[in-house]
Amino acid sequence: MTQKACALTRVEQVKPEELKEVVSAFNDPGDENGVKQVQSTGIHVAGERFVTLKADERSLYGKKGREGIVIVKTTQALLVAHYPETVQPGNAANVVEQLADYLIKVGY
Predict the structure, then answer these.
(1) How much is the pTM?
(2) At a CB cut-off of 8 Å and minimum separation 6, what does 46 contact?
(3) Which of 58, 16, 61, 15 lies closest to 38 in space, CA to CA?
(4) 67-73 and 78-83: which strand pairing?
(5) Looking at per-residue confidence, does 3 or 50 come out higher?
């Protein structure tokens, strides 16, 4: 899987080692109970650690205080979205997941 940064907002400071960590989290099949390593280490983006709320083959959700991140994998991209404390986590996740669905539908 090869991804490039296309549009960045607050998370423009994603370091290469953090991106490798995210890709590894997606590739991790988990232990015998299905628990991925990222669920114990957290997700690191822009120098900050987010507690992992969800980690599956398509999406990673992380939270730090009342803000968080949603990372969704498409065919050719990783969508990395940060939401502030004024946004409901479920709303942020729905928007990013729907954008990913659209991108997958159009082959991206």
Answers:
(1) 0.87
(2) 10, 11, 12, 13, 14, 15, 18, 82
(3) 61
(4) antiparallel
(5) 50
CB 74 within 8 A of CB 107: no
Q: Which residues contact 44 (CB under 8 A, 6 or more apart)?
A: 18, 21, 50
Residue 32 has pLDDT above 50, yes or no: yes
Phi, psi dihedral angles at 24 (to 5 degrees): -60, -40
Q: Which residues contact 39 (CB under 8 A, 6 or more apart)?
A: 52, 55
Q: Helix (H, G, I), strand (E, B), or coil: what is residue 25?
A: helix
Span 66-81, pLDDT tens digits: 999 999 999 999 999 9
Helix (H), strand (E) at residue 98: helix 89-105
